[in-house]
Amino acid sequence: MSANLTNLAKLSRNGMAERVARDIPEGAYVNLGIGLPTLVANFLPKGREIFLHTENGLLGMGPAPAKGKEDPDLINAGKQPVTELPGAAFFHHADSFAMMRGGHLDICVLGAFQVSVAGDLANWHTGEPDAIPAVGGAMDLAIGAKRTFVMMEHLTKVGESKIVATCTYPLTAKACVARIYTDLAVIDVTTKGLVVRDIVPGLSVSDLAGLSGVPLADGREPAAAGA
Amino acid sequence: MIDKIKASAAEALADVKDGSTVMIGGFGTAGMPFVLIDALIAQGAKNLTVVANNAGNGDTGLAALLKAGRVRKILCSFPRQSDSWVFDGLYRAGKIELEVVPQGNLAERIRAAGAGIGAFYCPTGYGTLLAGDETRRINGRDYVLEYPICGDVALIKAHKGDRWGNLVYRKTARNFGPVMAMGAKTTVAEVSEVVELGTLDPEAIVTPGIFVQRIVKVANAAPSRATSGERRCRQT
Questions:
Q1: B-contacting residues of A 148-167, CB under 8 Å?
Q2: Active-site choice (A26, A49, A55, A84)
Q3: Closest Cβ opposite residue A174 in set B107, B126, B179
């Protein structure tokens, strides 16, 4: 029986952010990409000290300021006003990207157009002739962090899988993605292929593989499997 | 007595030549040297190559320099933003050349120019459209050879400076300032405050004066010129 997507308990954008946040441990140095990943900051478990890095030169980034307290010299990678936490540090761009490229960041969370079964990431350019290419820090982040998480809707608006055998959009980096969080599942990229760690209720791993068009192994903990 | 403080932005930029490579600090409008850019527009140098993170926001600063038709080519990491209409129009009309550089490569290539590095192997961009042809596998990992980006002039914004050119910055307005100061032959910094020699804590000086040739005191006091809401837009 094929999955009826309309009846599934798909995760909302906030639900996905909450799911990612759960997996970020105490003490992690983390960069949250522009767009969907930015939401993760709202769900980091209280009581965990987690260091948020922003590419434009701040560790210890805090939440958005109260209205009227915005400082044009204190912004995030999306150029939105933010705050600095006690213990924060400012630094220049070469140091900021050394933190990525040098493997000092534990986790980065990025949005994506496509992720391949080999963990290739495409998230910067549609490749369309009239598109103006803009990469920002995406390529540096993707190859730099110890673990690169991708957070995206599982399917495009027209129902095509964003998890693919081979990326058709221009690559951001090869074999860089460790884990994929979608509105349907959490999937690890392993040397033996894609392994499902978590899936929304009402959807089987084989149905998800059918939707995705790529092989998926069931790697759920025994308690969760068969749900 | 050494005094790098210039009487005006016009005096500090009088000798910028046509065809120069001009580095312009800032991430969006944070750290963008608006006063120096306005002076460069008035000075009239043309056929410029600009090195900057973005390609201008709204109609002021870097966007105004582009709009004035002075820029032949821009090297940047993120040209396309919700408020980059000046650049977008020039690009689509074929009136400006664009070289997209991953942001960390941009910073490190500028730093390399200032540090006397001939080229360096970098993993960023390997296997992508933005990689050059010269690659090498080192300890099982693939790298791309990246060359320095050297500026004739760097225009940067800092918070405080002294007459020897020592600088400190303010919050995330620091961004590209320190590496651009290193990577250009002549660095001009606009500062919100000029302080007496010895006032800046030597332990806390971010850019030592050796990297800075000229300083201009600007009227817009800290925090940097208040940016309007629409200029502080999200990247798209």
A1: none
A2: A55
A3: B126
Q: Is the pLDDT of residue A168 over 50?
A: yes
Residues 6+ apart with CB under 8 A from B58: B83, B228, B230, B231
Give me the CATH number covering residue B120. Answer: 3.40.1080.10
Alpha carbon distance B186, B183 (integer Å): 9
Among residues A182, A184, A204, A180, the alpha carbon closest in space to that of A193 is found at A180
**In a domain? residue B233:** no
pLDDT in single tens digits along all 236 residues of chain B: 999 999 999 999 999 999 999 999 999 999 999 999 999 999 999 999 999 999 999 999 999 999 999 999 999 999 999 999 999 999 999 999 999 999 999 999 999 999 999 999 999 999 999 999 999 999 999 999 999 999 999 999 999 999 999 999 999 999 999 999 999 999 999 999 999 999 999 999 999 999 999 999 998 644 444 444 333 333 33
A84 is catalytic: no
Closest CA of chain A from B118, distance in Å: 17
Give the structural domain span for A94.
5-215
Size of interface A-B (CB pairs under 8 A): 167
Close Cβ partners of B122 (under 8 Å, ≥ 6 residues apart): A101, B104, B105, B108, B143, B144, B145, B146
How many domains does chain A contain in total? 1
**Which tokens hold the place of B52?**
């900057």
**Are the beta carbons of A134 and B88 separated by less than 8 Å?**
no
Position A112 in a domain: yes
Could you tell me the residue range of the domain that residue B64 belongs to?
A: 5-226
Residue A84: CATH number of its domain: 3.40.1080.10
Structure ipTM: 0.93
Amino acid at B119: A
Q: Is residue A107 part of a domain?
A: yes
